[in-house]
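Q: I'm building a small set of examples for a reading group on sequence design. Run inverse folding on the following structure and report the sequence directly after it, with nothing in between.
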């Protein structure tokens, strides 16, 4: 079963570190500030909880641990409102499994790589107990599989990446029965590394290879925690203890980059597009103030927004660039962004 770790571990500060693990998991690497609530669900709590306020560590730590609840723990009315306002619908684990299987079928060239399913009930699956076999093709070895980049769009609590629990029922899922993309990579790492150092190195690479974005800050925070605690789950299962805190910082930093907050329709930080005022003069020298809405919001689509375009990191190339440039196939690096 999934281990329910004491979340106080997130409030630890490593030696020589300026931030706690929690502060890193709340970081927005594009703005260098904290992620936004980006939802009105908490507005009744007052100042600091409004839609475009940033989530502060004290709001989700200490006596406030558990303040942000997963979707299955929210009341029905709240679930319905989130579905209506942001089209938030979480996918049952068996559907995540079926869709992730399609990716692996293409990679391995065969079906039922990690699980087989009951012919009468697809929600029942039987894990493959023996070591996963890879194709004879050298381009399809376990290292290539671990490094293969995958992304979950509008990731919510990231059920396609990791499945510590069923996002619909809330039930814990044992490691062998997990179906997420990262879960599969970590299983492969565990089966093919011989030393703890190798396991840590390749587990880190696995985390660097998975990406996801989400609009609502509470869901993003839960997704980040799910990935962080997944690392602890697999390490503990492999070695029977928790890793050194320096590795927790490395993993948390990767997660804060690879799971980012973004308006998926604009590719910018939520709420960052603005209406700007332009002052001109008429023939008689009188000032004329005009309001200029964001041109991208006026036109629709991804281009020409005056908001802050989200930045992601390519860990293998050791570069940063806007997600927009990555979609366009360009190489626009952060800090040297062309005007769009």
């Amino acid at each position: 079963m999934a281990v329910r770790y004491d979340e106080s571990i997130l409030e630890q500060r490593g030696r020589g570190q300026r931030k706690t693990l929690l502060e890193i998991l709340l970081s927005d690497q594009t703005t260098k500030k904290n992620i936004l609530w980006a939802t009105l669900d908490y507005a009744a709590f007052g100042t600091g909880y409004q839609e475009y306020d940033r989530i502060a560590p004290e709001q989700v730590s200490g006596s406030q641990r558990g303040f942000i609840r997963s979707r299955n723990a929210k009341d029905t009315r709240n679930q319905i409102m989130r579905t209506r306002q942001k089209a938030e619908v979480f996918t049952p684990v068996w559907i995540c499994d079926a869709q992730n299987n399609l990716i692996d079928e293409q990679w391995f060239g065969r079906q039922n790589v990690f699980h087989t399913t009951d012919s009468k009930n697809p929600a029942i699956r039987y894990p493959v107990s023996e070591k996963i076999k890879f194709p004879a093709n050298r381009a399809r070895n376990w290292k290539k599989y671990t490094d293969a980049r995958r992304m979950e769009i509008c990731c919510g609590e990231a059920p396609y990446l990791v499945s510590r629990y069923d996002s619909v029922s809330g039930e814990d899922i044992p490691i062998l029965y997990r179906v997420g993309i990262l879960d599969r990579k970590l299983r492969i790492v565990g089966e093919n590394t011989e030393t703890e150092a190798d396991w840590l190195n390749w587990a880190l690479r696995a985390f660097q290879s998975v990406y996801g974005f989400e609009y609502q800050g509470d869901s993003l925070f839960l997704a980040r925690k799910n990935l962080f605690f997944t690392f602890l789950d697999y390490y503990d299962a492999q070695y029977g203890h928790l890793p050194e805190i320096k590795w927790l910082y490395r993993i948390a930093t990767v997660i804060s980059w690879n799971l980012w907050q973004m308006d998926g329709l604009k590719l910018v930080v939520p709420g960052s597009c603005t209406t700007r005022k332009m002052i001109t003069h008429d023939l008689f020298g009188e000032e004329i103030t005009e309001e200029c809405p964001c041109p991208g919001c006026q036109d629709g689509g991804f281009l020409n927004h005056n908001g802050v375009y989200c930045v992601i990191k390519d860990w293998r190339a050791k570069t940063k660039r806007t997600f927009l440039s990555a979609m366009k196939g360009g190489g626009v690096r952060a800090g040297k962004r062309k005007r769009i």
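The first helix runs from residue 21 to 25.
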